[in-house]
């Protein structure tokens, strides 16, 4: 984080329940930090190469109409889940690739996760996994959650679960949460042995990407936790050689 708080937040929208929770949390953080919020919806639309020129023209017209409809749907979805104003971005392409292509321009990326692939591989096969693996900026991963569990992000003082000693790369975020959100830290032991009950004493979990493997005991602990998890990546040269 190059400044004391995030100024630009990108949230991915796929219209599912985890996406709704992600929009709520992203909107709450944007409002409390005074950050600009961007809502992104992406899907891959391929044009068959064997179409004639007239068919391609009609298909392109249909695609433009679909884009316009998608923009309206994203705007309505975001408005239903956060009062924060948001700029809508609709893009063609594989969602994870689009998110990663845009991530460099943001301070925080927020994505929902369905968690359907089991605890041994928390994000296996999901957009969230691909984004966490390669994002150059922190990623906040949000499960579907009831509204009352998210309310603390709107006006309350969320408690942040973080390992002791606090990893160097996450300290600016912890300090920022304390200054802006009045968030109180919950110090926890090594993630590979920490219980779900201890993790969930916090309203969110803050971890270093270098400490997170997408398989193994840490992933198992995080997968069992129904709290938003913010993963802060390490230096680029570290991430190039390992999952972070």
Description of the molecule:
The protein has 244 residues and is an alpha/beta fold. The chain has one domain (8-239): Rossmann fold (3-Layer(aba) Sandwich), CATH 3.40.50.12370. It is 39% helix and 19% strand. The radius of gyration is 18 Å and the shape is globular. The two termini are 16 Å apart.
What does this entry show, briefly?
By secondary structure, the protein is an alpha/beta fold.
Number of domains: 1
* Main β-sheet, spatial strand arrangement: 3-2-1-4-5-9-8-6-7
- The chain-level mean pLDDT equals 83
> What is the CATH class name?
Alpha Beta
Distance, first to last CA: 16 Å
CATH topology: Rossmann fold
Tell me the number of strands: 9
The value of Rg in angstroms is 18 Å
Q: Which structural category fits the helices and strands?
A: alpha/beta
Determine the number of helices (DSSP H or I, runs of at least 4 residues): 9
Tell me the helix content: 25-40%
**CATH architecture label:** 3-Layer(aba) Sandwich
Reading the helices and strands in chain order gives: EHEHEHEHEHEHEHEHEH
Overall geometry: globular
Question: What fraction of residues sit in β-strands?
Answer: 15-25%
What's the main sheet like? 9 strands, mixed
